[in-house]
């Protein structure tokens, strides 16, 4: 991994970037295998296992930034690119790779956030609104009918007031404001018709009231 960290534009801009390359050997993957438990010729059960899948190379780049103006507004965020090249094995000789991809590895991810602060009522009102993007990703490494989460974006925001003596803080935050439905993980066993996934949190609001003793 090679990168650079920098402070630019009269210390108003933090800009960091790096590129990386990884050569992995003897990767292990979790799998679900169906089998015939009662000898009737029909697969009716399954077991989980770890297999030595093979090798892979992973490479990419990342850029993150944080810019603050001299007044009340700033921007921050990041952009990342990831490329995976698996060289997995056909353990059972059925012509289908036991794991075709590196799971949960979107090619592009990124985020942009606007940050605000104003003097209000003897304290400081701070706020932030952001958008994050995640490219489509395969969530399961089974070779047949993997679960795929298409690309999606999430919006979140928060606003808070901090008293002048920094003792009181009142705030409210909201996550997934567009109430986007998206999968975070899953597994499937085609022979048994099992297809299951877990979803991320829906639209959520949180209010906070803090008092600091010092």
What does the model show?
This protein is mainly beta and 214 residues long. The chain has no helices and 13 strands. It is elongated and about 75 Å long. It starts with a strand and ends with a strand. It has strands at residues 2-8, 13-35, 45-68, 73-88, 108-120, 123-134, 137-138, 148-149, 152-162, 168-175, 183-189, 194-199, 204-211. The strands form 3 sheets. The protein has a 9-stranded antiparallel β-sheet, with no helix packed on it. Strands 7-8 form a two-stranded antiparallel sheet. The chain has a two-stranded antiparallel ribbon with strand order 11-12.
Q: Which features characterize this protein?
A:
two-stranded antiparallel ribbon, elongated, 214 residues, mainly beta, 0% helix
State mean pLDDT (0 to 100 scale): 87
- Main sheet makeup: 9 strands, antiparallel
Strand content: over 45%
Head-to-tail CA distance between termini? 42 Å
Class of secondary structure makeup: mainly beta
Strand order of the largest sheet: 1-2-3-4-5-6-9-10-13
Instruction: Assign a percent range to the helix content.
Output: under 10%
**What is the β-strand count?**
13
The parts where pLDDT drops under 50 for at least 5 residues are: none
Number of helices, counting only DSSP H or I runs of 4 residues or more: 0
Q: Helix and strand succession?
A: EEEEEEEEEEEEE
Could you say which overall geometry the principal axes of the C-alpha atoms support? elongated
Radius of gyration: 24 Å
